[in-house]
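lol ok so funny story. i was supposed to be doing the assay writeup but got distracted and ended up predicting the structure for this chain instead. priorities right. anyway since i did it might as well share w the group, maybe its usefull for someone
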Amino acid sequence: MDLDDNHQIVPSHIGQNAAQKRTIRTLFTRIAPSYDRINRILSLGQDQNWRKHALARAQIPSGGKLLDIATGTGDVALLAAERLPAVQIVGADLTLAMLDVAREKARKQVARRIGWVNSDGLALAFPSDTFDAVISVFMLRNVPDMSRAFVEQVRVVRPGGRVVCLEMTWPRRFPLTWFFWLYFFGVAPLLGQLIAKNRAAYIYLPQSVRQFPAPAATAKVMEAAGLREVSWELKMLGTVAIFVGMK
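and the output, tada:
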């Protein structure tokens, strides 16, 4: 058993979840100012293209509603505002510092119609059947309960709507596995130290990718959460996966 913030006894797994969320919030608060820059470098400039593919897979109808959960610095929400002018957009994130960066980017791009919300991905602050699509990018590696995250996304999506997930995935074939290990366990921490002044955050990054389930296993979690017609496509030599499921 553990104690919560009000010193009440809670089951140990709940306490562990809360502790992990605090750790993630602290980590992303620290790297928020340099998050975009390091993402562009580590992805070799491809991360925005991956987001565009994920957004296209959402198939949001004109006049529909999109939730970009774990929006971070708002890249998916801003792409949607640019490409889908008739769509209502909400960008939600656990970390206020990331949302601050997103709001500033939106102000500069005159994307005022995006609603920014501080929300936990395991307990979304929205009614059921609200959105036509939910997109998450680089979120699921960072949540303490991936199944619960998908259950919540399914809850807030309307029947017939789509849940789209973009994630890094560890390659399964040599020599790509060796190169990926060298790149992420060598280059990423170095960039974290030089740019973000936070080596530990970018040691966590490759560890989280390494531990993330294989695509087939992730698809089964999505199906168990209530999604159907689940599929995925791999990009960047099998190191990036885009998952899609329909409610």
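The first strand starts at residue 2 and ends at 3. The chain has a mean pLDDT of 88.
back to the writeup now i swear
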